[in-house]
Structure formats: structure tokens, C-alpha cells
Amino acid sequence: xxxxxxxxSGDLTAAINPLGAELWSLKDSDGRELMTDADPAYWTGxxxxxxxxxxxxxxxxxxxxxxxxxxxQHGFARQSTFExxxxxPSRATFRLTDSDETRAHYPxxxxxxxxxxxxxxxxxxxVTIRNTGDGALPASFxxxxxxxxxxxxxxxxxDHRIVFSADEPDRLREIAKDGTIAAETRxxxxxxxxxxxxxxxxxxxxxxxxxxxxxxxxxxxxxxxxLRIDFPDTPMLGVxxxxxxxxxxxxxxxxxxxxxxxxxxxRDKPGIFDVPVGGEKHIALRVTLQA
Length: 291
Fold this sequence. Notes:
Number of helices: 1
Largest sheet: 9 strands, antiparallel
Order of helices and strands: EEEEEEEEHEEEEEEEEEEEEEEEE
Mean pLDDT: 97
Number of strands: 24
Shape: globular
Strand order of the largest sheet: 7-8-9-10-24-20-19-14-17
Strand content: 35-45%
Structural class: mainly beta
């Protein structure tokens, strides 16, 4: 039995797994689940935290100062047990720090804190990445929440859409067969600012906006309750599901998979940011249930 940390407000309840500091459940005031059903026939994830890389490194290796280190897709945070720093009625904070195990994959000192808080109908997720070492800390970070598709408000799956807050005229990045980023791009499937959701959009993996202009999207059926997802600090966005599943992932990223054949240093990997010695990087996500 998984020992989840639970928080609540008058409008929402949330449950977080210390393994990965992963949001497992988000329910409305009537107990209706807004997250994935985690059907193992498709994908058992809920909302993994992506750190210190986003996406798949080429051959699952990162390179630091001429040395190779094994690094799985999306990094190791999602498979690491976080320390519970606080567990209050409406707020919980989790921390992961470097260890002998993490340094075998990523030779840097860090502290990663994830704070979840509920205020009315809004879930706030606040991330702090601290550099506790003696050199610059190169890293990426991403959110990967899987929301119920359809949402539990009586509308057909085919009625659901994602509406972007700004025009997104750019072509999308393509995912190569090995999970890296292909040189080719694909035409945007947006109708104006609207992505009309259907399974066949994802037959070739995720939709990837490499330079997102929007700072939030609204996901829902156009009538009834919807979810507003705000991501003010992340310049990339992925949207993904496995055809046939009952979820859609809306994934704000500060980082991306390696380009095909990339063999450069981690510092040259697309989407990497540097946290200076003694410094911090803050990244926020907000999920609001709108009537």
C-alpha cells in the first residue's frame, strides 16, 4: 500500500507520493478524479517530476567534462524517494539531495524541493533547484501531469480541446524512433489557438512546442468545468498520450530530449540552464479548476 501525503482545501484535494514527489490524485469537492486512471495497459505514471534532464539523452548517456554518465529518459528524480519536509493540511514540501547514487549518474551537488499547496480551486506546485556545489549546476526540469480525458463532467472524449493563451505559429519538433529530437519538424495541428484532441494526433509520440509563446492553456470540453494550467517559467511544452488511454499529459518543460546523434557536453544540451554556486532556480506550475 502506497503511503500518500494528502492535502486539501474547500474545493480540491490532492495526494502526493514521496516516491518521485509525484502528484497521484487531484479531486474536486465532490470527489471526482481530475487525474489519469493510470491504467497499466497504457501508462502507470501520474505526474512524474523530470530532473535533471527532460526527454531521452542520446544512447541514454550524458557527458560531463569528457566523461560519460548513464542517464535514463527524464532523469532519476521520478524514481527517487524524497524526504518529506512539511505535511500540513493544505501544503506539503518534499526534498531530494545528491547522494552517491545520484552522483554516479550526475556528478553535481544539488537540492531539489517541490512544494504543493491548495488555495481554493488552485493547486500550486513550486519548484526550487539549489546549487549546493562549488561549480555551476547545469540542469533541466519538467512537469508531466496526466489529466483525465475525458474530464468527469459528462462530456464525450471527442469534445475536449486545449486552448492556448497566445498564437503559436511555429512548426513542432518531431520525436525520432529512439526518443531523441529529429531534425525534421511537423506542421502545427492547431486550429487558431485550439488543439482539438483526438487519439491519432499521438500516433508518432508527443506534440512538442520548442519555443512556446503561451504562458497558460485551458483544457476542457468547452462547456462545464475546465482546467487552467499556468506555466510562467517554462519555454517548452509537450502534449502526449498513448492512443486509446484515458488521459492527456500537458507538460511544461525547461529542457528537451537530445537532438539525434548528440554527443556534446551536458552544458550544450538544448534547454539546459545553469544555476550559479549558492544560487537557486524557481519554476512554478498552477492548475485551477474553473467552473
